[in-house]
Amino acid sequence: MIGQPNLDEDIINFASDNTSGVDLEIFSVVEQAAKSSAMPYGDDVFTSKLQTITNEIFEKRVSIFPVATGSAANALALSVVCPPYGSVYCHKESHLEEDECAAPEFYIGGGKLSLLSGEKAKFSAEILRAKLEVKSPAPPVHHSPAAAVSITQATEIGSVYSIDEIAAISDVARYHRLSLHMDGARIANAIVSLGVTPAEATWKSGIDVLSLGATKNGVFAAEAVIFFDPDKAADFEFRRKRGGHLFSKHRFLSSQLLPYLEENKWLRLAENANLRAQQLGKGLQKLSQFSILHEVDTNMVFVKMPVSLADGFKRKNCLFYTWGQDEGYIFGRLVTSFNTTEKEVDRFLEIASQLAN
Amino acid sequence: MIGQPNLDEDIINFASDNTSGVDLEIFSVVEQAAKSSAMPYGDDVFTSKLQTITNEIFEKRVSIFPVATGSAANALALSVVCPPYGSVYCHKESHLEEDECAAPEFYIGGGKLSLLSGEKAKFSAEILRAKLEVKSPAPPVHHSPAAAVSITQATEIGSVYSIDEIAAISDVARYHRLSLHMDGARIANAIVSLGVTPAEATWKSGIDVLSLGATKNGVFAAEAVIFFDPDKAADFEFRRKRGGHLFSKHRFLSSQLLPYLEENKWLRLAENANLRAQQLGKGLQKLSQFSILHEVDTNMVFVKMPVSLADGFKRKNCLFYTWGQDEGYIFGRLVTSFNTTEKEVDRFLEIASQLAN
Amino acid sequence: MIGQPNLDEDIINFASDNTSGVDLEIFSVVEQAAKSSAMPYGDDVFTSKLQTITNEIFEKRVSIFPVATGSAANALALSVVCPPYGSVYCHKESHLEEDECAAPEFYIGGGKLSLLSGEKAKFSAEILRAKLEVKSPAPPVHHSPAAAVSITQATEIGSVYSIDEIAAISDVARYHRLSLHMDGARIANAIVSLGVTPAEATWKSGIDVLSLGATKNGVFAAEAVIFFDPDKAADFEFRRKRGGHLFSKHRFLSSQLLPYLEENKWLRLAENANLRAQQLGKGLQKLSQFSILHEVDTNMVFVKMPVSLADGFKRKNCLFYTWGQDEGYIFGRLVTSFNTTEKEVDRFLEIASQLAN
Amino acid sequence: MIGQPNLDEDIINFASDNTSGVDLEIFSVVEQAAKSSAMPYGDDVFTSKLQTITNEIFEKRVSIFPVATGSAANALALSVVCPPYGSVYCHKESHLEEDECAAPEFYIGGGKLSLLSGEKAKFSAEILRAKLEVKSPAPPVHHSPAAAVSITQATEIGSVYSIDEIAAISDVARYHRLSLHMDGARIANAIVSLGVTPAEATWKSGIDVLSLGATKNGVFAAEAVIFFDPDKAADFEFRRKRGGHLFSKHRFLSSQLLPYLEENKWLRLAENANLRAQQLGKGLQKLSQFSILHEVDTNMVFVKMPVSLADGFKRKNCLFYTWGQDEGYIFGRLVTSFNTTEKEVDRFLEIASQLAN
């Protein structure tokens, strides 16, 4: 990590989209919830309105279950669609595999993640099919059976599955009778990037269950699991409760998600993040000492730069994660956020330009 | 449940202490956190200050881990002190057993709660000792071995273990080499009731690990697991993460707990709740149609009343849980809160008085 | 434990029915299996014949799955009928609760055993109903939901549920939509005692899934889980495999169970054990220093005797478990077996008679 | 699968080493156990002698725990050395990953197998080191921590790790403070192939815990977990019991393992299997239509042949597993056994020769 955290105004923080605070309009609804009394465990008006607006946004009756973290959303969602001896197929660079400390396996009750390769942190329908069709000479009972497939949208490197790619994966999943889960920690950024509707991005492309992210995009701590077939969600409530994820003051979660989803707020916030990443990527590309590593589809810019420049950013209070280090060069990940400003990016580019000379 | 929830000002809500909102001073610190940027996962100033103040309050170096729910705090704490084949001894009316949908067993990895009896929702050292000393003719390997003991302070009916009672239980636990956990969802109310220091109420009486409650006492959604021997907490972080309980914007939790613990705020909030319960209990006792069922040690009043009165309260927008029903009588639980006002209780008593005539 | 184990011929071993060896006719079939080659994992003639004969014995098409231990049979059976957050209702003195080191909770994935009282180690339909109908004021999601009921036949003290008692329990289970499991570690002894058919003792009385015991009754290490509705057994094979309970040389299990079930061998073996226990009980009853504690329904005799007598048996190489000790008296459990002889019992009674004088 | 199983004498069965029966000398000791009485749960002379002889064979005081299946041995062993959130590093073609239906993950309580590549179904110290040293920019708590390494000896394709290879892997494991497990389902074949002592093959090369196989090499159903540091085995007994793997007539397991290990029986049996595989491989190599795919280090021969030949073997009652199929060719796995005779192999080669013409 470059730089040390503090509340200093002069810091430019591109370490992650979870370093940002909370959108002020969203916060004002949380404040209402904080200042009023309500029945616990979801029996409140914020939660009932949230159900209504979610149905509208996804153009069908769905079941939505707020939780506080992305790992909880993913692990709980998968525990519903995968038996304890089953396998979930996902990308080897997915958050599920790399960044959840075996939460999916814990909630599933001991199953497996079966890892797929593929460029840009995405796997294709073909790669999935090939792995599913590997035949073992042993009878099926010896092998943990495939139960579900999970795709990350947008991926850990900010790339996006196209609607056609998702539909093709869904076809393979359906053929093998597997549920299709989407880890949508950055689904808003992906929807904006694709220019489709939330319904098109999800169930209309074959998604059965969605982890809808919000924490990285302007709220404090709120995500939701959405089942597009409410009948499939039958025992989710028991699973959420026994995971310790049912909030007594449940309106805290709903009062974040309600304004987040209302009036396309979530998509507007994501659009800002995406635009700032575009601005950042284009600006750095102009400087010969920076190489952009992946196309900028959403709100992340991966860049290779001389180690000396990385040190320079550090001295200038510009925060971002770095790793690797290869013949004097280092890799950096810069993440923009719902409240990153054009001016901040300009200032970062100015510093970059100075350091590069 | 009597009455239906809404945001109507005229409701008097004694359904639970989790129906209240958030203390305004606490909320203003949350607001600061919401409006600033910080590094994720606890690498922020709110969290580091929280560690400092917790050490001060408990008069020793401890390890504190914020989480969002009481079930998470309890289940995670027990998973550290109980192996997956072990047993936790607790009261049969405890929250662990009755209200957590097998969360402890899930986090422990399949162990048992071994249930103890005892009046007022408390078990004694004697009852614990007797159960631990039951000898089976079978070799020990057949039986899930005792690993930990958990007491609830205050209990589910608002009663409080005295310091001597805790110390006696601790002696038995230590003799059998068991860890001693305290479910302190209402620990502040108990400390106020006992008139002791937080250190005396916990590790000085033999508690090894504490679930420190805050949600029911003025915050939004924050509890903490405190290990009084930090060495025993070695793998807690991995367990919290894989349970999906590590918040990326971790400052949301810390910014609630910090002002909660500072300047005895938590004890002052609990004191108000306790005083209002006293007022309520004494007031109802004067009315011949109400029988108070348990001594009012903290912030709960259990009362038996004619069914017709319960219906009357319902019509008057007075909310509380009821159950049972026995020859025209019904049981009610009235819970006061950090922000219950003297006036509210007066009004409730006035309504009670009118209904009783 | 009285006495030390050795292979000395002069020992009379009533410690347990698992101290006996293997019936010789059964062993000769195991020998055939040992001396031949066959495909693994149940694709062998012993296993296919076992399926056929089990259907005949139970007068319907069932699914039978051999495993090696009673704990495996119980835990696997329950894992099919109870979700990981659910509860199994059973007697507080059941083998499930007392003698399986939390195996059911492990296989279920973290659920609970909810314990019932009742005399003679049996609970009644009324006790079950009362426990299931306890109403909590909290919403159902907080409490681990009831999923299954398990009865032990014969019980840990050798008592037997009558057909009417089972049918009444089954009615309650069905009303609450719970599966009904029978731990039949000593089912053969119970069937002989009741004088009914295997079908009457099980599915005709409402049992959904049976742990069929054999180990205690003349085989080496073989039990079986039988689902009376084969559709309910769909995922049992995966669960057995991941528990490490699928034998590659599966015919080892089947070659024990096949001769065990053929030509009523199992019932004839159990009949001998029951008769010997009758003989033993009646003989001891005649001696004033022994008090028989429970009626002798199957193959166990519980007896209270002076400590000095217990010591005497020990010196005479008579083995049985003892516990308690109360004003000079001690409790003993004497278990007869498929190969206990009339002569052995006579000799034991003779020793008892000598010691008592 | 080529051919259908039956007890026909004329079948040549190279499907697996688990299709064979039981060595007759071993069986005669099982018979002794079957015909005698003994105390249960390991309190018998077979078990105590087994402990003694195991210490002798491995030239140190060890802890040995018999179980009935290889999956049980592996999963239980790993559950002791890996916490529920941890990872075990193993080869992607290992039995652990491919053939145990997630048993390791179940017993560990939800952890991960982290898969390594490498030729001949072996990974090298270098491959292990590289994977362990991959640095993530995220803090460690997000990633399931490495806890143990497992190697399969001999591997699933019959190849063998050299002593130097094991020692190098052990060095990496020790550097990273990981336990080193050996899945020795075919350890006897490997020891014979390496020409070393059991101690050299295991703890002297850095192995901490061994799954000692026997089932594939002349017994009915018996394996054992051996801890080379008995202190590390402290809670194994509870884990075995709650897995349902503690046999009441425990002598059944010990009476197989005792004669298996006595007087080098296990090594002599494995030697025969290895020699027969050599004979088979060399014979097939002479026939131009067969290509041997891997060097024959132990008791398996992998061979590519025309599909028409495979069909021919089927008609001639020669059983072995086949898979793939590639431009008229198919892959076959031929496994020899402790009781495969020179004559059988000759006959197979004769049939091969006839079919090939």
Q: What tags apply to this protein structure?
A:
homotetramer, 357 residues, alpha/beta, Aspartate Aminotransferase, domain 1, Aspartate Aminotransferase, domain 2, 2 domains, 4-stranded antiparallel sheet, 13 strands, disordered N terminus
Total strands of chain A: the figure is 13
CATH topology of the largest domain in chain A: Aspartate Aminotransferase, domain 2
Biggest sheet character of chain A: 7 strands, mixed
CATH superfamily of the largest domain in chain A: Type I PLP-dependent aspartate aminotransferase-like (Major domain)
End-to-end gap of chain A: 24 Å
Give the overall average pLDDT of chain A.
95
Helix and strand element order of chain A:
EHHEHEHHEHEHEHHEEHHHEEHEEEH
Side-by-side strand order of the widest sheet of chain A: 2-8-7-6-5-3-4
Number of helices of chain A: 14
Relative strand content of chain A:
15-25%
- Name the largest protein-protein interface in this structure: C-D, 61 and 60 residues
State the CATH architecture of the largest domain in chain A: 3-Layer(aba) Sandwich
Radius of gyration of chain A: 21 Å
Would you state the CATH class of the largest domain in chain A? Alpha Beta
Oligomer: homotetramer
Q: What is the domain total for the residues of chain A?
A: 2
Tell me roughly what share of residues is in helical segments of chain A. 40-55%
Quick one: overall form of chain A?
globular
